[in-house]
Each structure stands twice: as C-alpha cells, then as structure tokens.
Amino acid sequence: MQSVMNRKIKFRESFRPFAPSVLEESAADYFEMGVREQSPYMMVVAPVQKSRRLDISRQSNMMQGFDKLKIQRSEIPAVTHVDYSARLQTVDAERHGRYYKLISRFRDKTGCPLLINTSFNVRGEPMVGTPADAYRCFMATDIDALVIETVILRKDEQPAVPKSAATDYVKSFALD
C-alpha cells in the first residue's frame, strides 16, 4: 500500500512511509509507548512493538541498496519506517469524534485499529483546503473514491478528465 499510494497518489519516491492514526486504547499494542501516552497531533515517533515486527534478516542479507527498502518490516508495513519507528497520531473519542468512529468501524471489520494518515495533496502541492481543491486532486490522481462529509464520489462515475489535464496538474508541483 505504501508503494501504491506514493506512486499513484502522492507522486513521490515509493519508499516513503506514511503515518498511522491508531485508536488511543490500542496504541500500546502496536507501538512502544505508555498505555496512557497520547499523540493527538502526530508529535510522537515511537518504535513498532517487537511482537509486530517481522524477521527480515534472511531477506536483507540477499538484497542490496534500495531493494532493502522494499522489505516488509512489520504487520503494519505502510506505516513502519526502515528503523521500525512510526510517527503516530493517537485518536480518542472525545477529541476526534467521527474519525474515532470510522477507525473503530474499520477495527470491527478487520481486527486492525489503525488507518494510514497522510496529508491530502500530491508532492509539492499545498494541502487541499476546499471541496474544489479536493475534487481537482481526486480527479488528477489514481484515488478511487472521495468522501466529503456525507457525499461519496467514485472515480468511475465522474466525467472523464483528459489525461493531459491530469498530467499537467501533477507536473505543476515541484519535487520535494
């Protein structure tokens, strides 16, 4: 997922990890931090719990250079950095209301109490600030669906955008 999102949505190097949004009560199950430790604003970098890490020694010995970056390091690979850390956001019901409910529903369906958290923009672009910005970014990338409040837009149901317009949009933002 990390590679796919970087390549098709963010248009940046495929090895760059994303941050997790994790239910506050489950954070210590996935990250080495105190049970009551919080990071509601993504200000904490914590190691992934050793029990969630994968043994990569055999794979790592067989690979060289950038290929080592492609090795899955944990049960939560899209948010695990090469040093087994993650810059996380803890999500609680009081502060984050609907986002907490969304992650809780995801946990109930999958058993996983965290989602990928990233800014809504392509590399070099300012973050999306309006519904029009969101729609423009959605249509210029390979995002499958866009949800704004109670509205769900599916890419395959939208009017076609000329490939050149999407390409020009993405090219208008400089590399990091």
Summarize the model shown.
The chain has helices at 2-10, 27-30, 57-62, 93-110, 131-140, 163-171, and strands at 19-23, 44-47, 85-91, 114-117, 145-148, 151-154. It has 176 residues and is of the alpha+beta class.
Span from first to last CA? 21 Å
Largest sheet: 4 strands, mixed
Strand order of the largest sheet: 2-3-1-4
Low-confidence parts lasting 5 or more residues at pLDDT below 50? none
Mean pLDDT: 88
Would you count the extended β strands for me? 6
Q: What string, H for helix and E for strand, traces the elements in order?
A: HEHEHEHEHEEH
Number of helices: 6
The Cα radius of gyration reads 18 Å
Overall description:
This protein has 176 residues and is of the alpha+beta class. The protein has 6 helices and 6 strands, in the order H-E-H-E-H-E-H-E-H-E-E-H. The protein has a 4-stranded mixed β-sheet. Strand 5 (145-148) and strand 6 form a beta hairpin. The longest helix is centred in the middle third of the chain and has 18 residues, at 93-110. The radius of gyration is 18 Å and the shape is globular. The mean pLDDT is 88.
